[in-house]
Amino acid sequence: MGIILWIIFGGLVGWIASLIMKTEAQQGIILNIVVGIIGAVIGGWIMNLLGEGGVGGFNLYSFLVALLGAVILIWVVKALRSNR
């Protein structure tokens, strides 16, 4: 997947994850892209631990794996911020 597709994919995943976690007002487009890309890595890592494939392209399965990772990432960040 080219860098442009990763940016688009990351932005879309990050935006949907921020809507799910109700953080869309706190995140801009750059943070959505970063959350989406890091979420794809986290989701792929989790799926590999479970014996399944990770993010392999621009398809629904990869989107759901990346979304899972992005939601987990936002949840962890929110939990760490609330402990302060």
Average pLDDT taken over every residue: 85
> Which structural category do the helix and sheet elements fall into?
mainly alpha
SSE string, helices as H and strands as E:
HHH
Treating each run of at least 4 consecutive H or I residues as one helix, how many helices?
A: 3
Let me know the largest β-sheet: none
Categorize the overall geometry.
globular
- Enumerate the spans where pLDDT stays under 50 for 5 or more consecutive residues: none
Please give the radius of gyration in angstroms: 12 Å
Oligomer: single chain
The portion of residues forming beta strands comes to under 5%
Q: How many structural domains does the protein architecture include?
A: 1
Helicity range of the residues?
Answer: over 70%
Total count of strands: 0
How far apart, in Å, are the first and last alpha carbons?
A: 39 Å
Structure in words:
- The chain is mainly α and 84 residues long.
- The chain has one domain (3-82).
- The protein has helices at 3-20, 29-49, 60-82.
- Helix 1 (3-20) crosses helix 2 and helix 2 (29-49) crosses helix 3 (60-82).
- The model has no long low-confidence stretch (mean pLDDT 85).
